[in-house]
Task: inverse folding
């Protein structure tokens, strides 16, 4: 399948239609992507031709400017084909917020040069263990460090790297824009789920000089977001919370794919040592499908409500409050946990042959559970966080990403 007519500014409906066209091919190549531990270059090229990478570019450089609803629907359709590939595009899109923080003459060349795929990746560490360090020198900074989980780094030309620039103050956190050619890539991503994301470790080889123009902070990012939004050139409101709510579409899309695969086999699949010839004859199958469907539907309703809330806030011209942010974070974690449980229910009911790697359900189950275990999606953490806020209990500052440190209520 080849898509010949690529639009400069495809609409949300056009992108969804193209992903529907690509779905069989994406599904067929899920296992190949996992084996290669990266999105294959052919996939990148086809997605680029379809205009999918307009999702990962700032609006002022020709990127998409979609509502949360439109983005959510695109990513859900995407993940019905391949959840890991959708994850890479989503992660690259989130990192592009940092492109708002740097001077135009620094950022423009990143997006205006010919390129296939995502241009940047971003690593916003929540701790010193997951970030680098920076020290001030004439004209800039010397950075040093190792950054794990660099999703999108395989296909990008530049990276945004989180760095602490004060040894004693964890609030002193910045972001450095670095050409990937100046970094060491370790190719060490080998995970039980989302292996195809290629989320390898990147590092400096000793200290690396970064000029002042390519160094910024969360406060500066927040200022630039306000400036660009007031000019109609910035991203929609919501920041990292909006990104996480959009990401729930990937969990739902993988769950949709799992349900389709399971139901498609019930008339052929047997249940050994039972009186039923095929699964469709067994009441337990109907119960299993009903339970998984209820979970997916409930998770979808939660996601829909969160999407609608963010679009209402954007229309009203304001960011989510502290409580609203906590609730939306918790909604996202709930959706991921619930979808992972639904997919695992279907996987467990698929019989012993489902463990064979050529069977796609086992891969979807591992990918969905891996997504639910991402640091931002931990259900127990977010239930505690929102519960503590509702109870008025005091606690220390949350361990947040560098993007969230720039959020202002």
Result:
């Amino acid at each position: 399948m080849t898509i010949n007519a690529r639009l400069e500014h495809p609409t949300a409906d056009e992108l969804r239609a193209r992903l529907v066209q690509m779905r069989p091919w994406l599904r067929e190549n899920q296992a190949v992507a996992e084996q290669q531990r990266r999105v294959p270059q052919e996939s990148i090229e086809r997605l680029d031709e379809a205009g999918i990478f307009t999702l990962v570019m700032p609006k002022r450089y020709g990127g998409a400017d979609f509502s949360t609803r439109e983005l959510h629907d695109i990513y859900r359709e995407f993940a019905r084909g391949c959840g890991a590939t959708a994850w890479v595009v989503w992660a690259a899109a989130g990192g592009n917020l940092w492109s708002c923080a740097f001077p135009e003459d620094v950022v423009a060349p990143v997006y205006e040069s010919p390129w296939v795929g995502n241009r940047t990746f971003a690593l916003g560490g929540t701790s010193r263990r997951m970030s680098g360090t920076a020290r001030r020198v004439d004209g800039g900074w010397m950075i040093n460090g190792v950054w794990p989980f660099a999703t999108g780094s395989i296909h990008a030309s530049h990276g945004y790297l989180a760095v602490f620039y004060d040894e004693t103050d964890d609030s002193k956190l910045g972001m450095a824009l670095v050409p990937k050619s100046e970094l060491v890539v370790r190719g060490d991503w080998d995970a039980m789920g989302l292996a195809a994301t290629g989320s390898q470790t990147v590092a400096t080889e000793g200290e690396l000089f970064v000029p002042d123009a390519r160094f910024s902070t969360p406060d500066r990012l927040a200022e630039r977001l306000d400036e660009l939004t007031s000019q109609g050139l910035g991203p929609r409101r919501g920041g990292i919370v909006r990104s996480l709510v959009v990401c729930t579409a990937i969990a739902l899309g993988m769950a949709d794919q799992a349900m389709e695969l399971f139901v498609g086999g019930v008339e052929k699949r047997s249940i050994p040592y039972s009186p039923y010839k095929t699964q469709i004859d067994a009441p337990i199958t109907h119960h299993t499908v009903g339970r998984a469907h209820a979970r997916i539907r409930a998770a979808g309703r939660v996601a829909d409500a969160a999407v609608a809330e963010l679009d209402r806030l954007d229309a009203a011209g304001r960011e989510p409050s502290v409580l609203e942010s906590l609730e939306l974070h918790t909604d996202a974690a709930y959706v991921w946990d619930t979808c992972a449980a639904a997919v695992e229910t279907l996987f467990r009911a698929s019989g012993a042959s489902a463990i064979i790697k050529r069977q796609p359900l086992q891969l979807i189950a591992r990918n969905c559970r891996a997504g639910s275990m991402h640091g931002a999606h931990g259900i127990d953490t977010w239930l505690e966080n929102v519960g503590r806020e509702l109870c008025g209990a005091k606690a220390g500052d949350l361990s947040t990403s560098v993007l969230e440190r720039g959020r202002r209520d």
